[in-house]
Amino acid sequence: MSDINNKYNNKVHFYGRISAVIFLLSTFLIPLTLWLKFGLLPTKEGFIAGFTTIMLIMVPASLGEFLSFAPIIGSSAYYVMLLSGNFMNIRVPSSIVALEATELDANSEEGDAISTIAVAVSAITSEVVIVIGVLMLAPFTKFFAIPAIKIGFDQIVPSLFGALFIASAIKNYKAVIVPTVLGIIIIKFQLIPSLYTIPALIFSSVIVTIILYKLGFYTKNKTEEVKKTA
Amino acid sequence: MSYLEIANSKILYVIVICILGLLFTQAIFFYRMARKRALELNISSEKIRKATKAASISSIIPSIAIIIGLIAISPALGIPISWARLGMAGSLMYEITVAAIGGKSMGAAGLGQAGYTPQAFANSVWLMTLGVMPTFLLPILLLKKYKTQVKKATSKDSTFQNLILGTILICVQATFVIPPIFKGGNGLLAVVVASGLMAILTYAIVKWKQIWLKEYALSFSMIIAIVAVILFNL
Q1: Which value does ipTM take for this structure?
Q2: Which residue from B95, B97, B105 is spatially nearest to B129, judged by alpha carbons?
C-alpha cells in the first residue's frame, strides 16, 4: 500500500473510531436522563434477565453482521453506517447501488471512497425523511393505518433484495448458484435459527465457492472467452 | 407524571436532536473526506454525482419503513426514544425485539401491554442502548485488522477477490429472497414483481446501453413492487 493510501487509511480509522465512541457515549444520555432526572430505573433482576437475553442474541448477531458486511463495504463507510444504523435494509443496498452505478468494487481505493459517499448521503437522506416523518406523525399515522398501504410497505425488504438478487444473477449467474442452493437447503429445512442464517450461509458458501474455484468451475468460461477473443 | 409524559418530555427531544447533530456532522465530515479522496483518485465529478444520486434515491423508500416502525412503537416508548433508536445506531429489525424483551423480563405481557410499568420502560431503554454495544465495539477494535486481512487474502488474484466478495453479497441477498418464495403471499408477489422489473431494466441497460437507468433501476423496481402489493390488497 502506498504512503498516501496508508495515510488516508489511518485517518479514516482514527476519525471513525473517535466519532463512533463519542456517538455511543452520547446515546447513554437518554437512559441516564431517565435515571438522574426522573428517577426511572429498572429492577436489578429484570435488568439482568433482559441484558443476558439480548447479549445472547446481539453478540453473535453483531459478529455475523461485522464479518459479513465489512468485506463488501468501505472502511470509512462502515463507520458512517455504525452511527446511522439500519445496515441491511438501507446502508448496504445504497452502497451496492452506488458501486454498481459507478462500476467500482468496494475493496479498491476508488470503491472505498464511493461507498463512503453513498453511505453518508444515504444516512443524511434517511434522517431527513425521518425528521419529516416525526414532524408529520399524525397524518402519517392515518395514512399507514390503511391496511393495504401497511402491507405494501412491509414488503420493502423482499422487493429491495429481490431486485438486487436478480441483478447479481444476470451479472454473474455462476456466482449465484452456490449461495442459492445452500440458502434453499438452510432456509427450507431450518437447519439454523433465522438470526444466524446470514453468517452461516456466507461461511458455507465461501468454503464451497473456494473448492469449486480451485476445481476450475468459475474460470472455465473465462479461459474459453479469452480463447474466443484471441 | 406518567412514564409516557416523561418519554415525550422536551429534554429527551433536545438530547435526540443533539445526537442527530453528531450523526449529521460525522456523515458530512466523511462525505467531504471521501469526495476529496475520490477526486485525488481521478474519479470524475460525474461519477460522484451518479453515486450520490443513486444512494439518495434508493434510501428514500426504505426510510419510510422506519416511520412505520416509529408509528408502531412510539405509543409505548414515546416519540424521541423511538426516533433515536430506529433512525440512529439501531435498526428497525432489532430495536423492536430488544424493547419487547426489556418489557417481558420485567413481567410485562409485551411492549406497551399489560404490566408495562415505568420501570419496564426504563429497562427497554437501557437494553436498547446497551444492545448496540457489540455492534460498535467490533469495528472500533477490529475493523482495521479485519479489512487488512481480507485484502491480503484476496489481493493476489482479482478474479478470486471478486468471486468471494460477490458470493458474500449474494448470500445477504438470498437470505431475504428465499423465505418469501417458500412462504408465498405478499412477500412472493413483491419478490416476483421487483426482480422481474429489475431483470427487464438490467436488460435495457446492457442491451440498449441505457446507462442512465442504473441510478433508478432499483428504486423503480422496488416502488412498482410495493404498489403491486398495495393494489393486490385493496
Answers
A1: 0.83
A2: B95
Give how far B21 is from chain A: nearest CA, Å. Answer: 10
Is residue A111 within 8 Å of B151, Cβ to Cβ? Answer: no
| A152-172 average pLDDT score | 87
Size of interface A-B (CB pairs under 8 A): 524
Flag whether pLDDT at A223 surpasses 60.
Answer: no
Phi and psi torsions of A27, nearest 5°: -70, -20
Q: A111 touching B, CB under 8 A?
A: no
Contact state of A84 with B88 under an 8 Å Cβ cutoff = yes
User: Does residue B119 sit at the A interface (CB-CB below 8 Å)?
Assistant: yes
Ranges of each domain in chain B: 3-131, 144-233
CA distance A107 to B228: 36
* pLDDT tens profile A74-88: 889 999 999 998 888
The pLDDT value recorded for residue A138 is 81
> A14-66: per-residue pLDDT in tens?
999 999 999 999 999 999 999 999 999 999 999 999 999 889 888 888 888 89
* Residue in A27, A96, A171, A201 to test binding to B, most B beta-carbons within 10 Å: A27
For residues B110 and B96, what is the distance between their CA atoms, to the nearest angstrom? Answer: 11
Q: Cβ of A15 and B105 within 8 Å?
A: no
